[in-house]
Amino acid sequence: MINRLRSWWKQEQKQTELSISADNIPQHVAIIMDGNGRWAKRLGLPRVAGHQNGMKAVKRTTIAADELGIKYLTLYAFSTENWKRPKDEVDFLMRLPQEFLKLELEELMEKNVRIQMMGLENNLPQHTLNAMNEAAERTANNTGLVLTFALNYGSRNEITESMRSIGAKIADGSLSVDDITEELIQSHLLSSNLPDPDLLIRTSGELRLSNFMLWQLAYSELWFTNIYWPEFKKKHLIEAVAEYQRRTRRYGGLL
Ligand code: IPE
Ligand code: IPE
Ligand code: MG
């Protein structure tokens, strides 16, 4: 019985993987990981249980993205607006990076994953920042998947800060107004070392961007699912990539 189940499961896995082609894998996938609280509520659990299980989905998705040949995975973990939540929940979320890295860093090292943070550093608790910095340092020489945690990230804040820094350079004479180009603005964003996302996924059925990578998503393909983040599995990533591969990206031109 167990064996029959196992072979059915293997068959099932193979079939979903066959539905995507190895030639057109999105280089950069960004995910708005949403629905942790509602997942927990549905099971009669406290919201933080949703965040705890969301962490397992982060691990699964990173491994799955690596297996599919995705080069950059960017995960929206905490927005600049999420400080509005109750202190207990915020404190819990701020402890998750440490816990995640304690549990998973060794395996991610083995998989050659490079970890980095994208977000405002100044008002993060020191322990959260230390955990992210340590992960970034330890994985700095890895050459595999680049895993970026958007933590204390807000796109309007990012764009505002980049305008301030360009403005300061104009004021001190190191740049002139004519130097302002799309490339210059891009190079002042927190994501300056990342290509634009090819595919954006949002879980939990919400159809909005919630201040995530507004500049960078200009021509990304968007994919939404009703699945809550803690339920997200490799098969959902494959489903999203399969849909991505059916899309025609025109960038405003004609084919
Ligand atoms: C996403 O899940 C995680 C964060 C925003 C930190 P939520 O906590 O937003 O879960 P819902 O949307 O309330 O279900
Ligand atoms: C977006 O989710 C932020 C993260 C996933 C980290 P939210 O749950 O905060 O977004 P809204 O409030 O539904 O727009
Ligand atoms: Mg939410």
From TrEMBL:
Pfam family of the protein (one): Prenyltransf
Keywords: Magnesium, Metal-binding, Transferase
Cofactor: Mg(2+)
CDD domains: Cis_IPPS
Annotated substrate binding sites: 35-39, 47, 51, 79-81, 83, 85, 202, 208-210
A GO MF term: ditrans,polycis-undecaprenyl-diphosphate synthase [(2E,6E)-farnesyl-diphosphate specific] activity
InterPro entries: UPP_synth-like, UPP_synth-like_CS, UPP_synth-like_sf
Keyword Metal-binding set for record: yes
Enzyme class: transferase
Co-factor binding comment: Binds 2 magnesium ions per subunit.
Residues at which Mg(2+) binds: 34, 221
Keyword Transferase on entry: yes
Annotated NCBIfam families: PRK14830.1, uppS
UniProt-listed HAMAP family: ISPT
Quaternary structure annotation from Swiss-Prot or TrEMBL: Homodimer.
Function: Catalyzes the condensation of isopentenyl diphosphate (IPP) with allylic pyrophosphates generating different type of terpenoids.
Family: Belongs to the UPP synthase family.
Name of protein: Isoprenyl transferase
